[in-house]
Amino acid sequence: MSSTQPPISALDDAPEQSALENELAVLLVESLNLEIAPAEIVPKAPLYGEGLGLDSIDILEVALEVSRKYGFQLRSDDERNQQIFQSLRSLAAHVAQNRGDS
């Protein structure tokens, strides 16, 4: 193992939004009519409850929009939902792993 490589968590700590995070931030703001600019959503801030303040209905709407836009299903019975919707960054990581090649 080389000590010259940055730790994997270094990417997780980046305060700026990635391109996909920005796309998802725009989707969140537009689909939920949030009164915040997409760029103001902190990638690691919680989406649910504290942080952005989304509730379960908001999360369902986001799941529908993500499914439509990225071509894969986010299921309400997925045991990973709490992890997937933990933050903008965790949602973006899930979308990056699962989106269709359209």
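(ticket continues) Second input and output from the same batch:
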Amino acid sequence: MVKTPRVLVTTAAEATIDLLRDENGPLMFHQSGGCCDGSSPMCFTKGEFRVGTNDVWLGQIHGCDFFMSASQFEYWQHTQLTVDVVKGRGASFSLEIPLGVRFLIRSRIFTEEESKQMAPVYDGEEYLTRPELAG
């Protein structure tokens, strides 16, 4: 059975990820819900942002792990997130800022059928202990 992904990515965001990966190596995303555009997904070099039990791994987008703070996940757990990119500068420390673009989230509520087939989530500590996830 195919699991319903919790996070997706647009083609435009994939192209930006490719540019950033060419320059910075493996990447990861985190969405905190805090200050400095914290409600926007932030892109880091993989491992630059330390995840722990207060973070939730939602899956991968274009080969990049996507995490969200557990408190933010409480609000977003019933929605499918799509990472997109738009022109403009955010106020964050995310890697795409020098390109004159910023990542953002588009969301929609899962259907009842999709909710029955949800992909699992893992807290950051559990993610780090699962070689099949952490790669």
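Agent notes: Strands lie at 7-9, 27-31, 42-45, 55-61, 64-69, 79-87, 101-109, 122-123. Residues 54 and 70 are 5 Å apart (CA to CA). Closing as not reproducible unless the customer responds.
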